User: What shape does this take?
Amino acid sequence: MPNSLDPEMFDPLCPSDLVPIRVGDKWAGMIVQCLEGGPRRFSELRVPLRNITPKVLTQSLRALGRDGFVVRTVHAGPARNVQYELTSLGGSLLGPLDAARAWAEAHLDELIDAREAASPGSCTS
Assistant: This one.
């Protein structure tokens, strides 16, 4: 059984949507990172991904499953239990995601400046 996910795994002040390299949707990379330590239940994933709605989490997990990155396992019994786990293909994304995150952290100020300059209502010369 893997350790509990850290609720502060993703800094709420860090604009994760600034990372220009994405796998799937906005949340897919973070979901893959949450599954790095082993299988997780839906409710466990919601802890560090507190800003995602249940509907969007479900959609993202289905897309990751369709693309072969995540497998969904239903454990039958009195307390039905569903878990999500990385496939070997999904695990192979961890290295590239770590590299993309390190790049984004190194260039965060530039990314924020570019986003602000391109936003509607910004003053550009």
Summary: The beta strands are 40-41, 70-75, 81-86. The chain has a mean pLDDT of 85.
